[in-house]
Amino acid sequence: MTGDQAAGNLQIRPAGPFDLEILAALHAACFTAAWDQAWTANSFAEILAMPGAAAVMLLGKLHGRDDEPLGFAVTRSVLDETEIILLAVRPDCRGRGLGQRLTGHIVERARAGRQQAIFLEHAARNIAAARLYQAAGFKQIGIRRNYYRNRNNDAVDAVVMRLDLTQ
Ligand SMILES: CC(C)(COP(=O)(O)OP(=O)(O)OC[C@H]1O[C@@H](n2cnc3c(N)ncnc32)[C@H](O)[C@@H]1OP(=O)(O)O)[C@@H](O)C(=O)NCCC(=O)NCCS
After folding, report:
1. Distance CA 24, CA 30 (A)
2. Does the CB atom of residue 128 touch ligand 1 within 6 A?
3. How far apart, in whole angstroms, are the C-alpha atoms of residue 158 and residue 148?
4. Is pLDDT of 83 > 50?
5. What is the pLDDT of residues 125-163, one digit of tens each?
6. What is residue 116's DSSP assignment?
7. Angle CA(26)–CA(75)–CA(3) in degrees, nearest 5?
8. CA 97 to ligand 1 centroid distance, Å
9. Nearest-angstrom CA–CA distance, 127 and 150
10. Helices in 39-126 by DSSP H: which ranges?
11. Ligand 1 touching residue 127 (CB < 6 A)
12. Domains of the chain
């Protein structure tokens, strides 16, 4: 995938009940770190049934095919705050600004919905996530010690980040 392909033909659309298997397949391909948990199609069905939960898919050209799923995000909004629960880009499409596109879409939508802030947690060792969210203006507001468990049962800290939308 070239940078030009990443820049063109991209669209972000809401994901719904017909996308659960695609979301689960994307999740399995994207969340491969030792601290990541498995999510099935049923996990996505359950979260999307919660009030305020929403998912989007980023589609684009890949290997000559249009409208291939390249990434996704799951959010939940409660009152005037939004949480980014999951956000990911396919490993073979990373480093080309697609994570920024997804993050920017969520920020725009939250602003349009008059949300006050966006929160998220990521593993402290997840440098790509830290850089992505810092670049989007998120600030670290806390550390949750031993929040995740590695597959070998080691504890992993989580970083809590917040983007203020009131300014
Ligand atoms: C985090 C993730 C979404 C980034 O997606 P991406 O499409 O590669 O991100 P972008 O190309 O838009 O890059 C955004 C920023 O992150 C930085 N970045 C991305 N990957 C990086 C890496 N492996 N190491 C260091 N910085 C990285 C980029 O340099 C860029 O920063 P800059 O604007 O200061 O140059 C992707 O790595 C991913 O899907 N990871 C697995 C799932 C995950 O951990 N999600 C986050 C927690 S929910």
Report:
1. 10
2. yes
3. 7
4. yes
5. 999 999 999 999 999 999 999 888 888 888 999 999 999
6. S
7. 50
8. 8
9. 16
10. 41-48, 98-112
11. yes
12. 3-164 (3.40.630.30)
> Hey, what are 58's tokens?
């980023």
Distance 129 CA to ligand 1 centre (A): 5
Q: Does position 75 have pLDDT exceeding 70, yes or no?
A: yes
Check residue 5 and give its pLDDT: 45
In the block, tokens 């989580």 appear at 158
What's the token pair of residue 20? Answer: 């659960």
What are the structure tokens assigned to 35, written together? 């601290």
Closest C-alpha to ligand 1, atom 21: 128
Checking if the pLDDT of 4 tops 80, the result is no
Determine the Cα–Cα distance for residues 8 and 60; give it in Å rounded to an integer.
8
Q: Ligand 1 centroid to 65 CA: how many Å?
A: 24
Q: How many CB atoms lie under 10 A from the CB of residue 103?
A: 22
Ligand 1 pocket residue status of 163, Cβ below 6 Å: no
Residue 166 confidence (pLDDT): 96
Please identify, by atom number, the ligand 1 atom nearest to the C-alpha of residue 100: 12
Active-site positions read: 121, 133
Smallest CA-to-CA distance from 78 within 52, 60, 100 is with 52
